[in-house]
């Protein structure tokens, strides 16, 4: 991969996804795109760069190859403790029985399924209009997410109360299948956080975890400002463990570990709920 190839790839990735690829990621880019070169029978990256710039349909493969999709069920368990102990009791007191939650970089689906498992028993579908929107840029991960089939190893940390109710072991005993009661709660859609969002909101909670780290400050600021508009005034924003809104937005109040609520008019803070962490 020549210097010019890498420059071309990093600027195309930035324009299309917001993902910043510093020089130290050159090796990662090389190994992820090499697979695609082999599939296409191309002899070098210069050929690939010209192919991707002249073939609009190749963009999606290019993007899918460059996204990092690491995720897990109940990743950053303190967010789910907080949902269970603070947010759910508050939502149960809502007079309007409507809930909207958005997992905005859902990867292979473990995050929205974890949200759905946490919410299901508290909000019976006969009484509540509850929908979880789960979006990602990468079409490959979304396909896996909507199928809801995972290796058995991926659920070893799942509490038995969830396993029994929401997960079915497949015939080979090596995989699990999410049950339809939980799948029905989630709507998977492709969405690029950089582009226009087709939905209106408002959302009661937005999860945007472990994706902001790939963006520069300008992109983070734009996305967070849009989240502010999409969130209900009493909503919650959950971001990843190594992410922060410091220097990104002054429209949110930090109320827990990487958990934010919008500030009201004149920067007014909502009351900070009491919470003591205890993991699943
Ligand atoms: C590391 S995963 C995080 C998954 C999950 N939120 C979690 O914390 O476990 C990051 C995800 O962000 C997605 N992503 C990257 N750029 C994006 C963009 N511009 N719009 C939407 N999703 C994007 C990737 O495809 C990837 O699946």
Automatic annotation (TrEMBL):
Keyword Transferase appears in the UniProt entry? yes
Give the E.C. number(s). Answer: 2.1.1.80
Q: Which UniProt keywords apply?
A: Methyltransferase, S-adenosyl-L-methionine, Transferase
Protein's name in the database: Chemotaxis protein methyltransferase
List the catalysed reactions: L-glutamyl-[protein] + S-adenosyl-L-methionine = [protein]-L-glutamate 5-O-methyl ester + S-adenosyl-L-homocysteine
Q: One Pfam family of this protein, by short name?
A: CheR_N
Q: Which residues does the record give as S-adenosyl-L-methionine binding sites?
A: 69, 71, 75, 111, 136, 192-193, 209-210
Q: List GO molecular-function terms, semicolon-separated.
A: protein-glutamate O-methyltransferase activity
Enzyme class at the top of the EC tree: transferase
Gene Ontology biological process terms from the UniProt entry: methylation
Q: What does this protein do?
A: Methylation of the membrane-bound methyl-accepting chemotaxis proteins (MCP) to form gamma-glutamyl methyl ester residues in MCP.
Q: Where is the CheR-type methyltransferase domain?
A: 1-265
Highest taxon of the lineage: Bacteria
